[in-house]
Amino acid sequence: MQERILEIGQAAKSALLALQSTEALLDWEVEYLGRKSELNAILKGLKDLSAEERRVVGPAANALKTELTLLHKEKETALRESARDWESEGIDVTAPGAKKPLGHLHPVTTLEHAVEDIFTELGFAIADGPELEKEWYNFDALNFPKDHPARDMQDTFWVSTKKGKDRFVMRTHTSPGQVRYMETHKPPFRVVVPGRVFRNEATDASHEHTFNQFECLMVGEAGEVSVATFKYLATTFFERFFGKRVEVRLRPSFFPFTEPSFEFDITCVLCNGKGCSTCKQTGWLEIGGAGMVNQRVFEAAGYPRGKYQGFAWGFGLTRLAMMKYKISDIRLLMSGDLRFIRQF
Ligand code: DAH
Q: Which candidate among 22, 150, 156, 184 keeps its CA 20 to 30 Å from the CA of 64?
């Protein structure tokens, strides 16, 4: 019986392939799928078969019926299309196809992916955090004093919440990602947190209320991760990113969440350190902040004091994009102006 089903299938398919008209298709349907078709007889007779036979024949017959029904539909469509009189419908089938406009990624997104690829190669995980952040993660856990000027209305978008509930801000940096990651992971680890950040600022060519940063965090047992580790990784990262030799320079600075803290510069990638208008003749470009994670931040994340050591650094992806693409006004990036975006 199984063999017969196969034979019916083959006969039906070659007959379908050969037929050219809707009339012929109708006959085909009657013969292979109709009430008096052999296949239908097999299906009707299933109930008289032994249970064992039914288990094999049933699925085979049903599958063939489904397949033939589908092929019938396809052929019907094909015949209908080929019967159309394109010319009288005013359709020129020889006309070249219209090009559909294709979208593409925003330049900052493209760079974000490139940065993620490099860090992935260097063994970093990639983590995420919310843009609407608790005051605790954005400030307190990072050791910002209660009266720190960064919490001011000028710098931070506060979101109104009920009295006595958690206070929320639009995150002002990606650093809260450090604490969130540490709460759920034990060292050693290395992770980057890309993301959009928000500042309550007057905008101009180099200030925007919304921009992109990257946070980078590497933590190990005390003594395992040092400033030298950071300097090596930062150099490696920027050399891969810009595709050329780059030097990293650290300058002493202050951040509440790192001790010691640094600002870091790289040799100007436009003039290779000779001095040009982009680096204001200094030969160096200011890139971001970094430092050894303050033990208070480890404590806020629930780690025991003194057990671990690590570095954190943060830099503006938007600034890198401006350097890489020589964009002179940061506001263009978020303007939504297609004449600008289409150039990338
Ligand atoms: N979060 C700082 C900012 O937005 C940048 C920063 C400085 C990040 C030092 C760090 C760091 O991880 O160690 O200005």
A: 22
